[in-house]
Amino acid sequence: MPGKLKVKIVAGRHLPVMDRASDLTDAFVEVKFGNTTFKTDVYPKSLNPQWNSEWFKFEVDDEDLQDEPLQITVLDHDTYSANDAIGKVYIDIDPLLYSEAATVISGWFPIYDTIHGIRGEINVVVKVDLFNDLNRFRQSSCGVKFFCTTSIPKCYRAVIIHGFVEELVVNEDPEYQWIDRIRTPRASNEARQRLISLMSGELQRKIGLKVLEMRGNAVVGYLQCFDLEGESGLVVRAIGTACTLDKLSSPAAFLPACNSPSKEMKEIPFNEDPNPNTHSSGPSTPLKNQTYSFSPSKSYSRQSSSSDTDLSLTPKTAPYPQGPRIYLCPSSPSLSCGSLHLKKSCLLLSESSLPPHHSSLVSPVLRKSVSFSEELFLAASGMGSGSAGKEGGPFKALLRQQTQSALEQRGGSPHRFCRRREFPFFTLTAFPPGFLVHVGGVVSARSVKLLDRIHNPDEPETRDAWWAEIRQEIKSHAKALGCHAVVGYSESTSICEEVCILSASGTAAVLNPRFLQDGTVEGCLEQRLEENLPAGCGFCHIPYDELNMPFPAHLTYCYNCRKQKVPDVLFTTIDLPTDATVIGKGCLIQARLCRLKKKAQAEANATAISNLLPFMEYEVHTQLMNKLKLKGMNALFGLRIQITVGENMLMGLASATGVYLAALPTPGGIQIAGKTPNDGSYEQHISHMQKKINDTIAKNKELYEINPPEISEEIIGSPIPEPRQRSRLLRSQSESSDEVTELDLSHGKKDAFVLEIDDTDAMEDVHSLLTDVPPPSGFYSCNTEIMPGINNWTSEIQMFTSVRVIRLSSLNLTNHALNKNFNDLCENLLKSLYFKLRSMIPCCLCHVNFTVSLPEDELIQVTVTAVAITFDKNQALQTTKAHVEKSLQRASTDNEELLQFPLELCSDSLPSHPFPPAKEHLESASSNSGIPAAQRDRCSSWIELIKLKAQTIRRGSIKTTVTVEKTSPMGEGNFRNRSAAPCANSTVGVVKMTPLSFIPGAKITKYLGIINMFFIRETTSLREEGGVSGFLHAFIAEVFAMVRAHVAALGGNAVVSYIMKQCVFMENPNKNQAQCLINVSGDAVVFARESELEVVSTQQPAANCQPACTGGEVTT
Amino acid sequence: MTSELDIFVGNTTLIDEDVYRLWLDGYSVGDAVALRVRSGILEQTGATAAVLQSDTMDHYRTFHMLERLLHAPPKLLHQLIYQIPPSRQALLIERYYAFDEAFVREVLGKKLSKGTKKDLDDISTKTGITLKSCRRQFDNFKRVFKVVEEMRGSLVDNVQQHFLLSDRLARDYAAIVFFANNRFETGKKKLQYLSFGDFAFCAELMIQNWTLGAVGEAPTDPDSQVDDMDMDLDKEFLQDLKELKVLVADKDLLDLHKSLVCTALRGKLGVFSEMEANFKNLSRGLVNVATKLTHNKDVRDLFVDLVEKFVEPCRSDHWPLSDVRLFLNQYSASVHSLDGFRHQALWDRYMGTLRGCLLRLYHD
Questions:
Q1: B39/chain A closest Cα distance in angstroms
Q2: Fewer CB atoms inside 10 A, N or C side of chain B?
Q3: φ, ψ for residue A27, nearest 5 deg
Q4: For an interface test with A, which of B81, B89, B146 has the most A Cβ atoms less than 10 Å from its Cβ?
């Protein structure tokens, strides 16, 4: 009996009138967990009942604790007829299961009914006592922390970042069960809510198990999604990044509510805590985790798979994927499912502008070169992985191998080796300094599938196989880019009837192995360290071999360090690295696209879609590139391309934040070329357009303060011939094709990107480029966490969700009209936002997240969630200089913080499991040293790695002295913090919500657990509730309220990394009905205003505004 | 392309004060947009009319949803659905319960019933206030009335506690409730020159002095069904006022009173001769008002009587306000020197309030 759940129902307020005669209510409460139900007494004739119940105690398995939600139902007692339900509250008790989070849930929860919305509130207290569980093979994973935040949470430090974890759970959708025909809509909605709650609990538990197995203690960047597949079922899937986190011994630990180890132990008699980091000062991971590594992994996994099948929520129907799956055959995808399998892949690379003579070719050819055919890919990946060693960059390859081995061999045992090696993916978008070595470019893969009912619960692997396939593709794309890992990884689906598009995207990258594993590499490489890594440009340097570039790209020497090659444009899905040197400010860039599609059934439909996809990807990409050039910028961050499928059209929406990276070359302008040169008026028109474009570029440069330092051509130009020679040299050794070299040679120094106007379509494209209106002055927008170039955020934030649905006039829709409608929709939406938030000027919309869906034939729905943050304009001017100095100081503090881990790793983790990894590395080290020195010179990334090492070591040497210094201000900070805490509590009631991982002007002192909520709302009186707008407005407000209430009950005052993952809206105005499903998640936290934590304050915003500071450094 | 659905929901509910005012004033979305366009907001912000339309719709929707809560302001404070900073909450409530002078003058003293509600059309046409706004204001009066009607204790405190209004507004509502409860006639042509402020001032004085709660006679027996403390006039007091009749009925007493007042004011009053000539009429008028207050009808006509019997005669003789003040002070004080008059306390309670009221009512 590993756990006791205790619940007390205190009181209710603002209950609805249930008895018309007396205008009062006789309320009582049912408390249900699993199959046990308790009831309170009836509190007669009151709208504000005081039950003050006893403690209801549930004795349950911790497995159930993780899976099941606590269900509280408020009812109106009726002597003669059946009791009427007033509403329900579902409470996820997961945050109580790990010791660092909340210890009690207590507060007012809105009572929610799926038909009536919120009807009053109920005050509930929930506690959990966990008992000692000696069963090592248990199925629960209590203690694993979950974070939605896609970076290392602020009050933790990453000891090891293990890597990708994923899981999915499938079930029948209650809405489509036969019983749905005879039950009320309310019962059906509640069944759905409950099922999803159960499934996500189960999913989280299973992911937790995987993390424990990897010896991690946390999942960061946890993203859980629902696929409502209709008839064919309900899929809940999640991905995340397993990490071993260590709580920073920051002032946070001394906050009243926080854990001092002794207190913790008393409150939660849970000795066998699987999470080794409960005690902030505890020993590092591997030692404690040995328990797990002792258990033979084979038996462990068998155990988990067998019990997986035992454990079912509704035994008759529930289909389950087996816990550990082995993806041994990803190369034969057609094997995985009987259904039609169509796949078109597309690779969006950090692609350079196409050479002028190429663009003058007929378009299909051009397109082909971008949307790679599958064969090209296979070739590319083969090159990237298998024979990388002998091709050109042996040192690069070495680095790759090392990291790859780091990624793949963490488990140690051979069994694990084959299970986990698959996907070196990371859902993180921001990383500890030094983690990211190079960025290759965006990799994405899409696949069109036909959904069919999951007939056999024992065969839930279809979905798994689908995803495995996609991931495999992503992995091979990354390899083609010379990268061994994918960061900023995410997955999504778009479903219309029986067709489903699965998409995955991420950024191919080369990572620093020391974060992925213990620090064994360190020792072997020390000898090679030479000089410092160039700051702020390292990640831009190409990871791939310039002779075997998988795509035509235009390389130059890095404008920052002048030593490494960089592409002329860089696309990524991650946030801007904090150390990147940026010039000017950034801005939101969107590409929008619609394509009509014939209505079709099943396979024909799927074929049509998959034929359209590559063209859409290509056009979206071109649009992005054009807009980027128009802004005078050279890099995109946070790129997210969403392709949505509808009955008769496909929509593509790409959002990203454009910036000017100092390391990349200045983007050339856009040149317009006409097709019919003899026509005079036409020429004039062209030149007019050209002028407009040039003006726009100049205006944008001014607007975003892009004024890179002038660099004389010679400096850049001179080293270019050298690599050519080198490349020839290398070519003789390698087998790289002549074609590639030719291509490389053909790239001259290009100034302009040529847009060709050969038909009206192209003309429209150019026009649409110019129609994007810049935000009004005082407004900036981006879809990343922070806006490059702005650093002085004030504490005023406003998170919002805006939804728009438009109905297209169905008469002769053309692609062009559709595009215009869609473009107008998005632009108007943005304009509305700017207008609404005008009182916050100067302000920046951060993390602008657009979602498009096509609920019906002629309906387009766009949902935007973002946060507006005001900043202080005047202060910005004054502090720029001061910041430069500060940033330098800070850099040193940062370093010292970062260097804690490698060192500790060396000392702590080496003894714990020294066998296979150490051996591996000794081998690799020996092979390294065998490489001739002459070759070594040529290998750029090798040197970089060495530089990195050098840096670490150097930092390491100062470490001891600095830490001493560090402790004293920290101590002071604690002291102040403690005294300031009551002040922070005085503003009880306000719960901030933000999609960002931080709160400006404040420091997060504690993470209370993940919030993951799913709601359904239905109405049969749509008109009475104010029509569709009134209905959805009220519902979203209610969802916010419920999220806030849960956070407040956990003792928190904010939700960070908030995301509305789903907002499915369906209406039937004729029947006066509507239904909406919303799924939101985020991390509940406690924050304290920085003014109260003066000492710490320098650190927190520092990390956020670093790019800005460095940007300032360059411009001044 | 038509917009089917268009919403904006902030974690902190956005309140636009200007739009709120337009909404409270009862303008339709279309009118509100037109008014906003006229205010030049488009030029200031560079927005389009469509944006303005969408923004106005959105705010209207929000206000519509908040209205339910505004009907019981404490609910607005405790509800969880809309996160609104306290200062904004106060603003929402205060503005919602604010009323138009023109409107309140029309319904002051009327029964807050369905019948009156039907007349709102006429009031709307007459005052130029939209019918919607009239309805809101009327419903506010009625709602406050209903809530505090049955309550004990200070009227102002009750209003303040249950509607979280500012002190000033709570006092105004107390006056409105008091007038509605006692049905004082305020609509006669004679009374048109009086503002709501004049009446509210009188109401406050009367609540303080003439009601049951005023005397501090907290019911000794809590179970006894005492009339609402602050709402109704003290019946016993009204009954006792009959005793004042002697001041005018007894010829000697009246003459003595007159001579006392005249002696004291000789040379101090600009309108002395007029006062001397009119004394008996004025005194008779003031005392007769007191003695008639046992009848409900006469209570209702209190202000009509005061204006007819005192304000108008003085005004026709062009008494300056300072002289009115001197006269009234002396008039009430001199009674203490009347040996044969035994109801000094009663006289003070009556005249003290009446003097305040008359001074306030005495203007053009």
A1: 15
A2: C
A3: -95, 145
A4: B81
